[in-house]
Amino acid sequence: MELQTFVNYYLKIFFILTPFFVLSAFLSLTRDFQDFEKKRIALKVTIAVMISSFVIYLFGKYIFELFGITLDAFRIGAGTILFLSALSMLSGNDDTAGQASNHDIAVVPLAMPMTVGPGVIGVLLVMGAEASSVMDKLIIGAALFLAVVSLGIILYLSTIMKRLIGEQGLVILPKITGLFVSAIAAQIIFTGIQNFLNLH
């Protein structure tokens, strides 16, 4: 049962991180870079995403308490933002057209806000607040760790991934990811509304 819960959280977090959209943005921003530079940036992105994600996940509960926000109200807000992000992926809009230079692009914009954007932040805050026991915290934390590592591997092997997926695949996969993310967002919103209105 715990393994199934772990796998469910892993898949949810993995898709929420929108790996193929991030891969497309990564390839766009690093197209003029050497292979070793791409790998160095991929490692820095992974570390930045790991640190920011765990800070948000672990301290989300205290943010709710500080601002007096109910979990269900935040579910509705976070789900809505995540849904808008999914629509952006489905419509093919992204903000990666800007020219990348040899300045550090790993943290901004690749780690934040492209990977850890408002939607991801909202979902991680909700997950952190939902975890009621130490075991829940550990399962979600392990799933988050593995999801970020998986994203890091995809970016680290970006040149190989581009050859495997192809140009057409890089256009299609972010849209498929967008469909999954929109479904996850809808579920978060519906859960928030159901709990908020006591529709059990």
Description of the structure:
There is one protein chain. Helix 3 (35-67) packs across helix 5. The protein has one domain. 37% of the residues are buried. The chain has 200 residues and is mainly alpha-helical. It starts with a helix and ends with a helix. It has eight helices and no strands. It is globular, with a radius of gyration of 17 Å.
Key structural traits:
200 residues, mainly alpha, 8 helices, 82% helix, globular
**Count, helices:** 8
What do the pLDDT scores average to? 89
**DSSP, total strands:** 0
How far is it from the N-terminal to the C-terminal residue, by CA? 24 Å
Tell me the major beta sheet. none
What's the quick description here?
With 200 residues, the chain is mainly alpha-helical.
Question: What is the fold's blueprint, element by element?
Answer:
Layout: H1 2-16, H2 19-29, H3 35-67, H4 71-91, H5 106-115, H6 118-130, H7 134-156, H8 158-196
